[in-house]
Amino acid sequence: MTVIKENKVLVMGGIIVDKYILVNKYPIRGEDTLITDSFNRVGGCTINVACALKNLGIDAYPVSAIGMDEDGDTIEKFLLENNINNDCVAVEKNKTTGYCIVVLDSATERTFMSYKGCEEMFSYSLIKPNLVKETAFVYLTGYYLLSSYAAKILRFIKEVKERGASVMFDPGPLVGEIESEILYSILELCDVLIPNANELEKIKIKLNAEEEVDKWIEKYKIEYLIIKNGGEGITAYKGNKKYKGAAYNVKSMDTTGAGDSFAAGCIYGFLNNLEFEEVLSIGSACGALNTTFMGPNGKYSLEDVERLMKGETNHA
Predict the structure, then answer these.
(1) What is the pTM of this model?
(2) Which of 32, 43, 65, 87 could form a disulfide with 18 if both were Cys (CB 3.0 to 4.6 A apart)?
(3) What is the pLDDT of residue 132?
(4) Which domain does 267 fall in, by range?
(5) What total of structural domains would you count in the chain?
(6) Concatenated DSSP letters for 95-151?
(7) What are the residue boundaries of the Carbohydrate kinase PfkB domain, all occurrences included (predicted)?
(8) Distances (CA, A) of 247 to 195, 224, 268, 300
């Protein structure tokens, strides 16, 4: 995988507001449960990855449209207060900002219900030509490929890749709803595929892929396949070589955004031309640290990551 000199990252997928509902246990369908707390956080894969990259000193540019409404105002304020680049964020008049209901139980298990707003929109005008030239990495979430803009998004990514950028595709839980042709196209474009085990199975079913994983990724010329298994760690492939990695032991409060933080840590490792094992370790440490915060995008430093990797942290 080729990485150009600049370390700027386009993070594509939309910014939304996560509306948290905390419960002791998720209700049985048709029954009731008591809410113990509720709050809102700016979230979505795009902003979660961008925040984690900022934690690590990487210049991240979230790409999204937001509405001219209360949730849109919340997002704008968040970007300003956290010094996140807003060059690729467009405010759309008379449009509604997307949101996600996050039900979090006492075992930190999350259940999502998402409302698609204008974050699914895409235009080449969102990204300035000089930024395209300086982009080293593109992160794309599968949520961004569920709209009528999917083909245009893929054409843009193809152009950025032809300029030397690398592409990471994070399928997301709704990957089974992406059109087959679009899914084929992004698999052929991406250098790094980073699903969890359930998402990988959905891809295989969608594409009727019966081959073993190593043969399957060879078919699409995917350079790195990284499978997230939550608390059980990761399984990864580089070519036909298989890697296993254990999860770091931390006191987890909320697993929302952990996979996004993991992806950001891996991007950091790739940008710094680290060995693949170290890329996976940094990603795992970032994902683990993010679970020690309530909300989808916790604040930690590269030093915190290094301490956790060395076993010198008090997060456990």
Answers:
(1) 0.91
(2) 43
(3) 92
(4) 8-306
(5) 1
(6) ----EEEEEE-TT--EEEEEE--GGG---GGGS-HHHHHHEEEEEEEGGGGSSTTHH
(7) 8-296
(8) 16, 19, 18, 18
Which amino acid is residue 19, in one-letter code?
A: K
Kindly state whether residue 313 falls inside one of the protein's structural domains: no
Looking up tokens 């915060």 gives 293
Asked if residue 145 lies in contact with residue 187, where contact means CB atoms within 8 angstroms, the answer is no
Give me the pLDDT at residue 214, please: 76
Over residues 16-73, the pLDDT tens digits come to 999 999 999 999 999 999 999 999 999 999 999 999 999 999 989 999 999 999 999 9
CA distances from 11 to 58, 61, 133 (A): 12, 6, 15
- Cα separation, 245 vs 266, whole angstroms: 13
The count of other CB atoms within 10 Å of the CB of residue 300 is: 22
Check if the beta carbon of residue 296 is closer than 8 Å to that of residue 43: yes
- CATH number for the domain harbouring residue 155: 3.40.1190.20
- Check residue 195 and give its pLDDT: 96
Residue 62 burial class via C-beta count within 10 angstroms: exposed 0-12, middle 13-18, buried 19 and up: buried
- The token pair at 25 is 């246990």
Q: Low-confidence residues of the chain, pLDDT below 70? A: 1-6, 312-316
Quick check: is 312 in a domain?
Answer: no
